[in-house]
Design brief:
Radius of gyration: 18 Å
Structural class: alpha/beta
Number of domains: 2
Strand order of the largest sheet: 1-2-3-4-5
Subcellular location: Membrane
CATH topology of the largest domain: Rossmann fold
Strand content: 25-35%
Oligomer: single chain
Number of strands: 9
CATH superfamily of the largest domain: HAD superfamily/HAD-like
Helix content: 25-40%
Protein name: Copper-transporting ATPase 1-like protein
CATH architecture of the largest domain: 3-Layer(aba) Sandwich
Shape: elongated
Largest sheet: 5 strands, antiparallel
Main location: membrane
Order of helices and strands: EEEHHEEHEHEHEHE
GO cellular component, one term: membrane
Organism: Daphnia magna
Length: about 170
């Protein structure tokens, strides 16, 4: 039953968040990089954010009119089949690398929970492409799974690209 105001001047920054104006207020919702871009310090909530990230959650900060208002933490449930699938891949001699736009603390928490061999956090789309290129230059055959349009360049560059939906 909420009446929602229509956003104006909406911008989506790839991998960092969104910003725009709602009901005359300038809003920004995203990571630390976005907060820096809009001139807002996330320091007052840093300890709380890091504690949430250590559990595997992704944290977004909310700023309104240039003032930090709070944070939002979200996390994806790890599918019940994932540990077994990763164990099967490891048993086949594959090295598992995770590259995510999530913060490094979040990435490390998820990587440790799943036994992932190499973890990269705060990775932008161009960085994913560079990672695939580097691994191939080392002589590795790269299979990459991705779930978004931001993964498209790296998926195309990989020897095997696996585009995932829901």
């Amino acid at each position: 039953g909420l009446a929602l105001d229509k956003p104006e001047d909406f911008e989506s920054g790839s991998g960092i968040g969104v910003r725009g104006r709602v009901a005359g207020r300038q809003l920004a919702l995203g990571n630390t990089v976005l907060m820096e871009q809009v001139g807002v310090s996330a320091d007052p909530l840093l300890a709380q954010a890091e504690a949430l990230r250590a559990t595997g959650a992704s944290v977004m900060y909310l700023a309104a009119d240039g003032q930090l208002q709070g944070l939002l933490a979200v996390s994806d449930a790890i599918k019940a089949s994932t540990p077994e699938a990763l164990a099967t891949l490891h048993a086949a001699g594959l090295r598992i690398v995770m590259a995510t736009g999530d913060g490094m603390t979040t990435a490390k928490a998820v990587g440790a929970k799943l036994g992932i061999d190499e973890v990269h956090g705060e990775v932008k789309p161009a960085d994913k492409l560079a990672l695939v290129s580097r691994l191939q230059a080392e002589g590795r055959v790269v299979a990459m799974a991705g779930d978004g349009i931001n993964d498209a360049p790296a998926l195309a560059k990989a020897d095997v690209g696996i585009a995932m939906g829901t």
